[in-house]
Amino acid sequence: MAWKDNKTVCKNSRFIDSFKYAFKGIQTVFQEERNMRIHLFLGVVILLISFFIGLQKYEWLWIILSIFLVLVMEILNTIIENVVDLITKNQYHPLAKKAKDMAAAAVLTTAFFSIITAAIIILPKFLERFI
Q1: In-domain check, residue 59
Q2: How confident is the model at residue 3 (pLDDT cuts 50, 70, 90)?
Q3: Please, which residues bridge with residue 10 across strands?
Q4: Could you give the CA distance from residue 2 to residue 20 in angstroms, rounded to a whole number?
Q5: What DSSP designation does 14 have?
Q6: Does the annotation count 74 as an active-site position?
Q7: Is residue 117 part of a domain?
Q8: Reduced to 3 states, what is the DSSP secondary structure of residue 48?
């Protein structure tokens, strides 16, 4: 959404602006969130390992889904953290902590799903090929 001034918000006037703002959001989360960079790095490592061990098409789908789920959950976690900080004006509140902790738990749970997925798909092939 584009800001006309400090008090009013309007819809994007052009379709291409939606993409521009979405890419700006991706850029912001990568610049400001260390965990997002870590998740992306680990995702790339898993993709490289997957390439070298030769996955089947359906295995690629599970691996790619897992990686993207973690990245999306990290973006949602960042959104929740920013909104909570905005509402609380960066003052501690037990409900704000609770919301942030649950958002982080969503990322952690999704990361565990990805680890389990990788262990089921990649680990046996990796061990078979290199050990």
Answers
A1: yes
A2: low
A3: 2
A4: 11
A5: S
A6: yes
A7: yes
A8: helix
